[in-house]
User: What shape does this take?
Amino acid sequence: MSPIFLSILQVILVMALAPGVSWFIKKLKGASQNRVGPALGQVYFDLIKLFRKEMVVSETASWVFHAAPFVLFASTLLAAGLVPFFWKETLLGFAGDAILLVYLLALGRFFIALAAMDAGTSFGGMGSSREMFLSSLTEPALLLSFFAFSVHTKTTSLQTMAASLGSEPLTATLFFTALIFGAMLIVTLVESARIPVDNPATHLELTMVHEAMILEYSGRYLALIEWSHQIRQLLFFSLLANLFFPFGFYLLKVFALALLVGWIEIHSAKLRLFRVPDLIAIAFVLALLSLLGQLIIGRPS
Amino acid sequence: MITSLFLLQLALLVFGAVAGFLCRRSEEQANWAVHLSAVFAGAVGVIYSLTALTGGRSFDLGFFSISPVGPLRLAIDPLSAFFVLVISFLSTVTSIYAIGYSRHYQGDGRDSRIACLGFLYNLFILSMILVVTARDAFYFLIFWEVMSLVSYFLVVFEHTKPEARQAGIFYFVMTHAGTALIAAAFWLLFIETGSFSFDAFRLHANNLPSVVKNAVFLCALAGFGTKAGLVPVHVWLPRAHPQAPSHVSALMSGVMIKTAVYALIRFLFTFLGEIPLWWGTLLLTVAILSTLFGILYALMEHDLKRLLAFSSIENMGIIFLGVGMAAVFTSLGEPLYAGFALIAALYHLMNHAFFKGLLFLGAGSVLSQTHTRNMEQLGGLIRKMPWTAGAFLIGCLAISALPPMNGFVSEWMTLMALLAGSGFDGEGLRFFTPVLASLLGFAGALAATCFVKAFGITFLGSPRSSHSEQATEASVSMKVGLGILSAGCVALGISCGWMIPLLNRAANSALGYSDENLFSFSRQGFLVSPAGMSQISPLVIFFTLAVLLIALVVLLGKGVYRIGPSWACGMPALSPRMQYSAIGYSKPMRRVFSFLYRPTRRVEVEEEGHDLLRTAQRFEVKIEPFFEKILYRPAVQWISRLSERAKQIQRGHIQLYLSYIFITLLLLLIFVRMS
Assistant: This one.
């Protein structure tokens, strides 16, 4: 099959798989609380139902409110076109790199954060303010992780980065990849709005971040937002899986990571909003240490 | 042909300067005359500078000669042509905009305010064009001074406001301190070379003793840094820029501060020969400080134009990151990387002129309709001013470096230039350049936060005051101005593969390389970083995004929806005052960076005998201006104490002054006799 076909198929598969990964974490949480948890079909039915429902749009909302879900979904799909999931071929790897990935995700966030303020409620403003606050601290940590990686690989192209570790003995790179892995794992927790950063299951005003932002959305738009959120989560899991574990079966790796994230979610309490910067600072320091370690211990050849 | 077009541009600007005074009868006519001639002058400038840049043509004019300093030489090489292009383009657009905007200065006809504004405005553009084309230190300084003075008068144009006068004084003092340092730098070069001509500086560049070289560099950096608004000599910028009329603010932030970049590039790569590595790292340090402090203070602003002015400091920082990396690579002897870094800086410079011009003009439209710059009084303007809002949104996207806008492209290039530095030894480059790159990313993310706030509070939600409730869309000429710049922001983003070759030539001539085909960072619309580190294609991204969006909208459509009130937690209705405020929005940042901001808050509550029955509440939060406190207040105190001392000898008796003269004469006679 031609690479273009494969890479388009890959994006479609990712769209289909993303809700499944969310289901897996929900099921894990259910099991930890002695509940059965939802059936696999439930996450998909939820999306389908949302797509069919009538929406209520605020009377103060402008076109930004209508445009934001589409921009978010499109930019997330575009970002998914940059990341290797099942195969090494990516749809847009020739036209962009890790930096573009970070900024594309920022584009979607920018619009959703604006749309949150469009309805003129204090919830929207609060969610928007918090989300932008957290993301502006996370972004440098994520970029520095990529840069620490690229000092080794001499490129910021995600395809090449993903392929690079496979060609080296694991022990040679373990030290610095472990540190970057730690940094990116924390970033993943923030970006996919998981405990200990954000609680995806709450609607309590003191704790909401992401949910407060999309409180005014319903129906089809909400479905688009939820779905792109799930795709973004899978995108980060795949980055972790393919950058740091260049062996093994992709689906297994992703679900193992979902298990890890679910385990963290089960075993930790949500942090206070103003403690989250400390956690992100840890991610930044880990990436910094990895960079420093590469320079002190062994110059990349 | 270029020569005559150049002279035509100068003539049109001179005509524009006096045209207002010729139309004494009608303010309306005066308005059209001064701004239309500026539009034509700008268009002419765009034509000849583009011809010079694409065709590689240049000219060199010598005018009347005064004996000690030589003739007035005006010349264009690719670097000057690039700056003339940016200045001319932006001034064309601001002049179109000004036709509508200046109407509110048209008044009773008693004083010729339009004529004055037109005089200063045209002279301002003229002086900028002359600054970047002068080839002689003496005339450069004269034009530089004219530019500073005229912009001072434009800052205090609304002189009835006390804050405008205060900002004016601040600007006046600081810009002259800067000019003194620039003059010192040129004077040192004059002593060494015996000439004011730039050519002489270039020829003697490699014979300069290193002490002189370092002194010249430091003077030039401090002097031009003051004009460029680099931290810590930036404090005049957020005061002065917002006070000028908005189209002038756009020019000041968009191009005037860039003339300092032009001059510093000349000094670094032409006048000073071999540059030591620490110059580059010093530049990078100053640049990253400006980037971070600029955006951190912009975040705390709720005055729309002051916010934009602070963000100009950030963007000057990004430009200087590029210039700094170019200096680093030049001293490492890596022409390819140096060219890439300088092109990144020049591209960001041009992009910043576009989007900051757009944002200032947008803020001007808001100001002219609502008569306030305070974001806390605004809100919901997207319904009243849809065109202005759309244009402002594009500006916000571009300045937050979001793809596929132009800001993203130049920020990507700057990041790549920084990352390339990690492949070289010396001064900790290997470690610090990736860290600088991530800090640049941090600044980008903070800029996104800042502009979500700026757009969200100003244009979205419901109106917070009657000013914003009664606003209407701006006039046609203002919309045209905004439209051109918005289109430019998108076009410069997606067409970067074709813009880069234009910049190649400017960077080539700035760095003094003669190989025309040295730089090839673009291939078929792709942007390729040196050594194959990475490539992007904003064009592909733009079209994929557009196709995806269209497909989604066609497939899904808006769906069925009904309009209802926003959810009010079960309360009867929402009031606009329940919305998040600009101060509230930036609260998390204020808390996390409290070590820098040192916020103080004051809450006043009026109660009616019971804690819960509050009749009124006042909330005030202030942040401490860090640099003012540690640098400027002590300096001002020191100077006033010194002048108190100096007053001792000024007693006001004529006899005393006569004796001073006598003593001076005596001392001079002794001095002459001795030597």
User: Anything to note?
Assistant: Chain B touches chain A through 80 residues (CB under 8 Å). Residues 285-552 of chain B form one domain.
